[in-house]
Fold this protein.
Amino acid sequence: MRTFTMVFLLAVLGSFNLQGQSFNEFPAIPQPPDSSIGWKRQFFEGFTQSPSVRQGDTVFFKVSTLAGCDSIGKRFFNVYNCAYKIFRVTSRVWTPVQNSQSQDSLVITGPNFTGTFRPTLSAQGDSIYPGDYRRHPYNYRRGCDWATSFYVTTNNWPSGAYYAKLYLTNQESDPNRVGYIPFVVRAFSPGSSSKILCVIAWNTYQAYNYWGGGSLYYDAGTFYSPDTANTTEGVDTVIHVVSFRRPFIDFWPGDPPYPMTTLMGQVDHRERFFCAWAYEHHYPIEYCVDADVHADSNGFLANYALAVFPGHSEYWSKQQFDNISKTFKGQPGNLAFLAANNAYWRVNYYSGPSSSNPDSMFCNKNRNEFWWRNQLDAGTPLHESSFIGVEFQGVNNVDDAPNKVVDATHWIIRGTGLGKDSVFGKGATADGKFYTTYNPLISGESDMVTQYSPANTDTLASLELRTMDPSDDHYNEVDDHKLRSQMTYYEDNSTNSRVFAAGSFGWSSSLFGTDSVRMGTMHRSILDHFSGKKYIGNVYTLESNPLKWTSNIELDGNVDVLAGKYLKISTGKVTVDSVVFAAMGTIEISSGSDTITGKNGKWGILVVRSGGTLKVKSGATLTLLAPLHFVVSSGGSVVLESGSTLVIKTSTSLGNNVNFTVPSGATLKVEPTGEMFFGGGSSLIAYGKLLEVPPFSRTGS
């Protein structure tokens, strides 16, 4: 550790050659009261060379500090007493920007680093210093070519959302003299610690980010941007390109202003609560950003069972759209959208060091053909509801509303005590202020089912919010012009993917609101079912691309492998808890030593129905263990390949005219706790081994 620190300090100090120097004086131009954000500088600002890194890789931090300039912005110099700490986001505490002492998990405390002030640049490359409003900063588009201030290596760090807290030595508790730099650590071996992938909505947070002169949101009349200043009002009056290589700003214009973004982007608004709940309830999660999904390097998405989007994931590239809506869903992979207005704008990335680390992104927001729903694929509109189940239809007029149950029988609602028309998710705390404590379930923007939603989309909850105005962008897309927030679920009966959508912004923060117990019950059910811990419902996959169970799994509802469909099991245990596990298609035990059993004295049933098959592949062993009834119906079959083993430790019933064959090289072992009942015309024919067979109970001929 001592050697590392010495090398680290040498590298940091060596990266700065600036000496104290003076710059030409200039008159301060009064800043326009409605547009000062374009020039706003913060005490500490910074960003990482890449929004995400792989576990074990090095994170390079680029930092500027106002401590490196005098009070009137005329002299700039090095500051040698800058310090940092690295935290992993694990706490529900509202934004660390507003708290001097973070409750997140401290990873490391770094040595001092040398800080300096970095001016913004105009479109012509002229430096812009504090107090100079004659030129407009252009860093929102060109980014920042800042030198590395310090770096850390992420050896043995869990995958997660992280940030560096920057401060002056001995002044860490001064909230006006700190800064934060967010970044994400991906898993070195994707899927090795969790089958759940959390996608941080980095594209959206840079779209909302005003640092360096502009964002994708305000026009020339507000910001005097060189990209928009000479355009005609109403035509191309917004910025189209924003850089990833810049700090985040902690301000959003408005009356009063509120933190649409913070120095952490929007992580503190939504992802923080998802991270905190997972940490507190011991759910391992692996993390990435939008550009990682876009690149899908080495097919890393295929290592996950669930991709969850807890944030405002509004801006998607074509590759991200395809990689989620087609490739990942086709694995099959499951999707959970815990906020609203997902996959709304299409963006294009501009080149960077790699496809997962682009320099900037483009989105023309003056033209609604950049809505994903107005993109065409073989003549068909790519409505986001076609794979999410819902899509954005408008901003609601409430800051604190619960949702209302429509389908109380659904397994996501089960266990909450909610009935039809029950309300849940009202989440305001004592001050009841939007964006200051915990968001309620319904707030901000709202999604609805459309004609493009899958036909089997199940609306679990729905709340009518307001009558839409003809000026609403999507007024003509809603037949009765009533804006609703709708929570939905559907199963893709071609790929077996399951998709949940919350339909509004506040799902993750509601996990810590006044209805946290019921929200937590639903949240846990979604994570467990979608990640492969539990299963309920039908299996729709074909043998060419079968559903695979590769870890212990519990069936907490009836499961049917439909006729002609295929399921592969290579897991330690399948628990059938007071339910029916039925094969009308094929259940294949593909490898390893596997057990199917009941739970806690509750008897389940494994049944091979007419036309169905239970197949044990060569080299695999299947044990059927009480409390479980094993039934092979007339017309069903059990296929043991040579080299396979079936161990029966429970009651087994063969229907009429079932021929059970043990081929050469296969083994059937009936333990003393097992027994077999034969229907009329059924038979057991053994060419392989029969071991420890007790007397059979036999009925029929």
User: Anything to note?
Assistant: The chain is about 10% helix and 35% strand. The first strand starts at residue 21 and ends at 22.
